[in-house]
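Sample entry (672 residues):
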Amino acid sequence: MKPKDQILARTGVIYGIVAMMALAVFVRIIILQFVQSEKWAGMADKIVFRREVDKAGRGDILSDDGRILASSIPYYTVYMDTRSSGMADTTWSNGISGLCRGLSANVGVNTPEGWKTALTNARKRGDRYYLIKRHVSYETLSRLKQLPIFRHGKFRGGLIYQPENSRIMPNGLLARRTIGYITEDTLANIVGIEGSFNGYLAGKDGRKVQQRLTGGAWIDVDNLETTHARPGYDVVTTIDLDLQDAAENALYKQLEKHKAHHGCAVVMEVRTGDVKAIANLEIGSDGRYHETYNFAVGESTEPGSTFKMMSMIAALEDGVIDLDDTINTGDGTVRYYDKIIRDHEDKGLGRITAREVFEHSSNVGTAKIINEGYKDNPRRYVDRLYSMQINKPLGLQIKGEGKPLIRYPGDKLWSGISLPMMSHGYEVQMTPLQILTFYNAIANNGRMVKPRFVTEVRDGNRIIKTFDTEVITNAICSRSTINKAQSLLEGVVEKGTAKNLRDSNYRIAGKTGTAQIANAKHGYRSGPRISYQASFVGYFPANDPLYSCIVVVNAPSNWVYYGNVVSGPVFKEIADKVYATNFYRDLQALNPERDDKVRLREAADIIDSRDLTVTSGIMPDVTGMGLRDAIYLLENSGLRVYYSGRGRVARQSPQAGVKISRGATVSIELKL
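Predicted structure, serialized as tokens:
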């Protein structure tokens, strides 16, 4: 073949190869464009864009007067887009020095010169998502937004911030277990109001679209797929923070004094069933008491002598006994089969009236009344108890309620000693809140209402849902029996086992309780040791009941375990707080112009009225005051108050007498 032909042949081959390659590229383009377009578009979309959940902000849990019990405080991670497309070079050059001074002053980390070097280098690298700081508060973010460059916003100033929420309880221990929590990832742990009202509090998540920037960082972008999250609603509880503080402080001191294992105290509004305070404390490994379990709601135990009220109402209603009938309690012991029931009196009470049986909390007298009155028909006794609804759970707004146990004749564990044992609070089980609900019904003239923890769900000022008081039964018994029950409870305090709780200013009605605590392995005794549960339950003022209250202390020291000594003082301290507060309110109503001069400082049993006139521009003295009075006085002086601790004000900063300006901050420290 001639050289010319060889060259042409080779050229033809090359052209052929090029043509085939071009055809292959063309075919591939056709396939990508029309056949696989959706596949590759989707992949590109995934690489450049992503869809994320826009987490809804959680609603607040509020006290009865709107103060925050639990809230999600926003924190922010702040970035800078140093190459934001909308940022002019002059914006950068004119503002970088001022921005760096502001960053140094507000977020620290670097000196102004250090910040300038770092940001300048980031801009040279083209960083679109340069980290400024994590966990930035809302107040700090607000100041950052005013800085040079940043004041121009996201696109012209490069300021990027992403919210993160942190759940806080600003009142520390107060009602912590009742406020509750949830495990948000799995909802495996649902506790208290947080858990039971999660559907309202959680809000509705939205959807956001993010675009990937150079360097792998992601930034939110507006998109047709974007849906904004709806924040959660606020839940308004029945908790009175001042009463809660009083209940928790009183309980804490008494648990410490008697070296008890745990205890609880609940204050309920008689008419509505609103739980105004609920304290639950258990000793920890550090020797201090903490809210670890809601004993008032969940711990179902043998109540002991507080159950005698149920037995007396049954006997009075069925005509088995009247208050003036007499019972021979003998030497304070009585035997039923192999069980000896004893009174706490060393020599016994002899022959006494049914009223005195109750007032002196005679186990023997109560057992004889019930056993002799119902031994031929024990079902009649239990049916009467059932008619008072005490065998049914309350169906509370929060989860975890313990089940009541009232045995019925014929049950597996029913025996010949069941009637006399049940009569004074054994072989039955109830939670403190179930017992309180029954006594609250007596204070409420027989009308039993369900305890209420939440009254409203709100969206700002708009009411989403209300929860009215629920009536369990309009009458637990006849009105004549209720009148007798009320007189019995007053007699316990006036001349019975709770005489130490008498008060000259107002009357208390209630019942003491002391029960041995059964151990699953050893019964009521483990070696030489017997554990006790001391309780006191009642209401005040006796002539016009406003509040009912129960205090239960579990496993106090062996040598002091009676309800009037261990639990009664907690009840009394709470009642004194309520009385003093109401007295002050009445004083204001009668003489409102003295509001700036007369304040009350409540001690355990005194009311201290003194001249507390506020001088404008001068820090008032709040040392020695309770939290409620201190906050009242300081806020009326135009100050913002931060506090820590429990009890009464031990220190304040600034000190009393210094010059102050309206809006200034004062810190107070409380100690027991």
